[in-house]
Design brief:
Blueprint (H helix, E strand, L loop, with lengths): L2 H12 L9 H8 L3 H13 L3 E4 L3 E4 L1 H24 L7 H9 L4 H10 L25 E2 L8 E7 L3 H10 L6 E7 L6 E4 L4 E4 L1 H4 L2 E5 L5
Antiparallel strand pairs: 1-2, 3-8, 4-5, 4-8, 5-6, 6-7
């Protein structure tokens, strides 16, 4: 399987394609490719029984596709942890190198890396790291765009995509931070997040790939 195909499978999984349908627009945004390229690749993935396609709705991973994507993500995220914890990379710098390393990492190397890292459960971007031969099973969460003004949320996970990560570093938005949504601009404008230390405007495009937990008033 080519790295290009693998990138599609990983993104579809990150967008929740193990549990629900992911539309083409989300894939176009996540990979920064044309709609025509996405349509062409989806046809290939369907032909290889890696995804199912529902016309005018989108795609969902088959069990075969989920197994492949989970294996790739395990290797990728283990390397991200290593790069951040042991080589002092920033969380927005690790994606490209982990992308290269995952494709040349054997099962034995991944197993030893996991032991060396003391069996981490999550990558620097909040994604779960599955055990060998296990599926990625992300906690089902809504994205930031699905919450109204006044909602209190915690940043839980972001899509592992370099342009997005660079953007989040630039606006100083981090995993684990809590905010109140204080404004949502019209026509897919920015979403304003506020806490006692920051007032951050998050673009609609970025907010659509940021997964958050709701904070209840009594929590």
């Amino acid at each position: 399987m080519t790295p290009n195909r693998e990138d599609y499978l990983k993104l579809i999984l990150e967008l929740g394609g193990d549990q629900s349908i992911v539309n083409n627009k989300q894939i176009v945004s996540g990979l920064g490719v044309s709609a025509a390229s996405v349509s062409e690749m989806i046809t290939k993935l369907v032909g290889e029984d890696l995804v199912t396609h529902t016309p005018y709705q989108g795609v969902q991973l088959t069990e075969k596709g989920l197994a492949k994507a989970s294996s790739l993500i395990r290797r990728h995220r283990l390397w991200e942890v290593f790069l951040v914890e042991h080589l002092n990379f920033s969380w927005n710098e690790v994606h490209d190198d982990a992308e290269v390393l995952e494709h040349v990492t054997s099962k034995k190397l991944a197993d030893h890396l996991e032991v060396f890292l003391n069996h981490p459960n999550y990558c620097p971007h909040g994604g779960m790291i599955p055990k060998e031969n296990h599926f990625v099973q992300e906690k089902k969460r809504q994205t930031l765009i699905e919450y109204p003004v006044g909602a209190k949320i915690r940043i839980a996970r972001v899509i592992d995509e370099r342009e997005l990560l660079d953007y989040l570093v630039a606006i100083d938005l981090n995993i684990g931070e809590s905010f109140e949504i204080t404004d949502i601009a019209a026509y897919e404008g920015p979403i304003t997040l506020t806490n006692s230390e920051k007032n951050i405007l998050v673009s609609y495009k970025a907010a659509s790939t940021i997964f958050v937990d709701s904070i209840k008033e009594n929590s």
